[in-house]
Design a protein that fits this description.
567 residues, 12 strands
Length: 567
């Protein structure tokens, strides 16, 4: 199956090279809450009064300790432990297979690649030479495209391959090559490229094969055109029942864009087809529900737990932790009441975004040092690469640990987050690309392979760029910096908007609290509840300052007073 482009000129225009420099593939000062219980009896009114924290770490440590003690005693007795390797125990089948290895047919060694895959875009002459060096029996174009996709090569390399193929075939590119390119774009979450391919396919084909539909759906859900993924799902229904992965992508997209009703309707539709939902789908609902104060949504999550029970399904470890976090998030340990979420409502988020754009980004912020041309270049960059999951203030992060080399610290942070399949943006300055003892070239190249990067002029201020990219990526996006951003908060027009900014900041700013060479970085957890005086009618929760503890204006109390009527 092939399609003809209107002309090679339009092909080059469609897959134009990205002009942005450095494009590749925080200390929040909030203390941990500590447990401290006491009670008094009010003679005038019967009240239970408790000073406490909202994180029950001691209870969990005690439970863990009791579990260890139980196991230790069981091992020394004649009783059978609950975690004995019975026939249906997790991992028992694998152990039996290892004890009784079966003979297997010999596996022939894989064929060596006859050529080295390119790591940067090639021109027509360079592709001609590479094809001449190819000794395989398969089509060179199909083989090299498959290899680039399999190795997750940079998108611009595959883009130059398609431009070369089109130039040799009067603008004709096969459907197979286009789908492989789409697969690579989806892996790198290059939404602009995905939408370009989508427009071509929509114009040329009335129907696609399942793989094409799946890739387009998965790619579109991260863009502002995510609802068109739902139209593709409807196209699949005309021929067959969509796969559970198709439903998972559409549900994840709906939750990403705050459309809970669409997500839940798709989930019910999936169950109506007798499909077993992916654990990632169910986990996404619990991730969305963290800190959310909504009884109807809570009932939906309880329905999911009943579904797991009734179908004897078992969540994985990460899903189990997610359920635990949801169950404990924002709940007072003194009275069990749910506290107010730290997350902004959709209306609050849009109001804050509008005010930051007007007063900080576009409003002549006196603390901002950049040029209108550079800001426009950055805005176009974000439009082509967003949304991001985490935005990193590269220079700030690199200097968090003065004794370590800056480029190594930044690489450690990026590598750890990239392994979690996070879409990353690193903001830096151009001098970071100039090799020296503190900024090694090889380490910075590794950073650029794992994250999108934008390097501003050396005189520019990073903060406006960080705020812009984070807010334009959506309410799920977090950012990493030690900067408290008090200057930008002061630029906002009124106390209400400043409070919204601080609330958003507490719910989105990640802080690195420890780094040990050769081991994982430790990030401080983000609060799930808002630190303000709260009431539910029959209870009050009041954060208060401890005597002899100095609290700065950008900090919040760690002690709470819990008051509720006794029944």
């Amino acid at each position: 199956m092939t399609f003809r482009l209107p002309g090679f000129g339009s092909f080059s225009k469609l897959w134009k090279n990205n002009p942005y420099l450095g494009l590749a593939s925080g200390n929040s000062h909030l203390s941990h809450f500590l447990m401290n219980y006491c009670a008094i009896k009010n003679q005038q009114r019967w009240l239970s009064l408790t000073t406490l924290s909202l994180q029950n770490t001691k209870a969990m440590d005690l439970l863990t300790a009791k579990t260890r003690y139980y196991r230790k005693n069981v091992e020394g007795s004649n009783k059978v432990s609950s975690d004995s390797s019975h026939f249906f125990a997790a991992g028992a089948a694998k152990k039996r297979a290892q004890m009784n290895p079966q003979s297997k047919d010999p596996i022939s060694p894989p064929l060596r690649n006859t050529i080295q895959l390119p790591t940067k875009p090639l021109n027509s002459e360079e592709w001609d030479k590479l094809k001449g060096d190819f000794k395989g029996k398969a089509s060179f174009e199909n083989w090299i495209s498959s290899q680039l996709t399999h190795c997750h090569s940079p998108v611009d390399v595959a883009k130059s391959l398609l431009a070369w193929v089109a130039s040799k075939n009067n603008g004709i590119v096969s459907y197979e090559l286009l789908v492989k390119y789409l697969c690579l774009c989806v892996f790198h979450k290059q939404t602009t490229e995905i939408i370009d391919v989508y427009e071509i396919m929509k114009a040329r084909y009335k129907r696609l094969e399942p793989g094409g539909y799946t890739l387009l759906i998965r790619g579109l859900i991260h863009s502002d055109r995510w609802r068109e993924a739902l139209l593709l799902l409807e196209d699949i229904k005309k021929v067959t029942i969509p796969s559970k992965k198709n439903y998972d992508d559409c549900i994840q997209g709906a939750l990403l864009h705050q459309d809970v009703n669409t997500a839940w309707n798709l989930y019910q539709e999936l169950l109506g087809h007798d499909l077993t939902p992916m654990m990632e789908t169910l986990k996404a609902f619990f991730d969305f529900g963290k800190g959310l104060k909504d009884d109807q949504y809570t009932n939906k999550l309880l329905d999911i737990l009943l579904y797991l029970r009734n179908n004897q399904l078992y969540p994985g470890e990460s899903f189990a932790h997610c359920i635990k976090t949801w169950f404990e998030s924002g709940q007072c340990l003194g009275c069990g009441k749910t506290t107010e979420s730290i997350h902004l409502t959709l209306e609050e988020y849009e109001l804050l975004k509008e005010n930051i754009m007007r007063n900080v980004i576009d409003g002549g912020d006196q603390y901002k040092k950049t040029t209108p041309e550079e800001l426009e270049r950055f805005q176009n960059f974000v439009k082509s690469c967003a949304p991001f999951d985490i935005v990193i203030d590269g220079l700030n992060v690199a200097k968090m640990f003065p004794k370590a080399r800056e480029s190594q610290v930044l690489l450690d942070v990026v590598s750890q987050l990239a392994k979690q399949n996070q879409q990353l943006l690193v903001l830096g300055r151009k001098h970071m690309l100039k090799p020296c003892s503190r900024w090694r070239k090889d380490e910075m190249e590794k950073v650029q392979k794992q994250a999108s990067c934008f390097f501003a002029d050396n005189i520019s201020k990073d903060d406006p760029f960080l705020l812009y990219a984070t807010l334009h990526s959506g309410n799920h996006c977090k950012f990493i910096t030690n900067d408290l951003m008090r200057d930008h908060k002061a630029c906002l027009p009124d106390a209400k908007t400043q409070r919204l900014f601080f609330k958003w900041q507490q719910g989105h700013q990640l802080a690195i609290i420890s780094r040990f060479p050769g081991s994982k970085l430790t990030f401080q957890s983000i609060l799930s509840y808002d630190t303000v005086v709260q009431t539910t009618g029959d209870s009050w929760h009041i954060p208060y300052d401890e005597d002899l503890v100095e609290r700065y204006s950008y900090e919040v109390p760690t002690k709470w007073l819990c008051l509720h009527r006794k029944t």
